[in-house]
Design a protein that fits this description.
With 265 residues, this protein is α/β, with parallel strands linked by helices. The chain is built from nine helices and 15 strands.
């Protein structure tokens, strides 16, 4: 599920109260006027700002990250405006269906099941599920994983689905958490043997905590996943706008610059 410290063409970041009692940042990207109506299309974006490096929140309660920078650049070339709202993962899709937000941008994996209730843009990032392993554990295969006592996941994310395939949906070996920071903290406190989550996120955490001795293990059984921005089912206007804007920032080199900013080795 989570920098955007810049203000684009004079639009100022706004601080909004977020769902579930948390605070979020409502940051607005630049936009051009609609020549026909004189108005600017404003799209509300729901994001669970606890999934670095894709979306996070700083000490000023400002949302930043790869997804945020990418969408802001898409808004610049697409001529629309964005308002970001921190939305906890467990209610993020309901927020979309209830029209509280128009877009979900929260490192969302495109799955056939999700496509039944929402539409997705073209893929904007590829990952796999990986295992973050405690220093004193030896995990190389799925069989090794099954021998662990407790493996953590974020509830409802694809790491949870991967764990269910390995252990069974109701297995006591799976420990579910509401957010990635809570999951990671439990591994660090030795409350879990390992955690399953997205490769880019785990790699980012290990890189920034090199002295703690955690390792990242790739499991061949975990398939490649594609992230997409989600919109309400049938909202072809927003979907087409996002896809065209994404295509443009890929072609003009902006996407590569943002990717290098967050994922350079």
């Amino acid at each position: 599920m989570k920098l955007n410290h810049f203000v684009v063409l004079g639009f100022v970041s706004l601080i909004l109260a977020a769902c579930g009692g948390s605070s979020g940042s409502n940051q607005t990207a630049s936009a051009t006027s609609d020549s026909a109506s004189g108005s600017v299309k404003v799209l509300k974006v729901g994001t669970d700002a606890s999934f670095a490096p894709f979306e996070s929140m700083n000490e000023k309660q400002e949302i930043y990250g790869f997804d945020i920078d990418l969408l802001n650049e898409m808004a610049k070339v697409g001529g629309f405006k964005l308002e970001f709202k921190h939305t906890p993962w467990d209610g993020i899709f309901a927020s979309l269906n209830n029209r509280d937000v128009d877009i979900v941008a929260s490192a969302v994996t495109i799955t056939d099941e999700r496509k039944n209730t929402m539409d997705f843009t073209d893929s904007y990032y590829k990952i796999t599920q990986v295992v973050m392993v405690s220093p004193n554990k030896d995990v190389k295969t799925v069989e090794d994983l099954t021998k662990l006592t407790r493996v953590g996941v974020v509830a409802g994310q694809t790491g949870d689905f991967a764990a269910q395939k390995i252990f069974g949906a109701t297995s006591n070996q799976i420990a579910r958490f509401d957010s990635l920071p809570l999951l990671i903290k439990e591994v660090e406190n030795s409350g879990l043997d390992a955690a399953i989550s997205d490769s880019a996120v785990i790699a980012h955490h290990i890189k920034n905590n090199a002295g703690k001795g955690f390792t990242m293990v790739s499991i061949p059984d975990f398939e490649e996943e594609n992230y997409g921005f989600a919109v309400r089912k049938g909202d072809t206007e927003t979907l087409n706008l996002l896809n065209q804007s994404l295509k443009t920032v890929r072609e003009n080199g902006t996407y590569a610059e943002i990717e290098k900013k967050y994922f350079a080795q």
